[in-house]
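Blinded run. Sample ID left blank on purpose so nobody reads anything into the name before looking at the predicted structure. Input follows.
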Amino acid sequence: MSRLLISQYHAEVDKVIQYGGSRKETSIRVAFQNLLNEYCKPREFYLIPELDYKTRNGKLVYPDGTVKDALRLD
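Blinded prediction complete.
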């Protein structure tokens, strides 16, 4: 991952903290999603937020994000 992307992420987090006054995960989630999407672009992957899936025991879960390719393989 490039240092430029990480620097941009830190700047965005700092701005969220400055404007919003919160360091909660939910406040900075979008900044991390942006960082991960930029990392995935040259690899032809894409981050899908809150994509639900079923566990082996049938429970439905919603992770913060799932990285997928165009084939949508799990």
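Unblinding after everyone has recorded impressions. Residues 3-69 form one domain.
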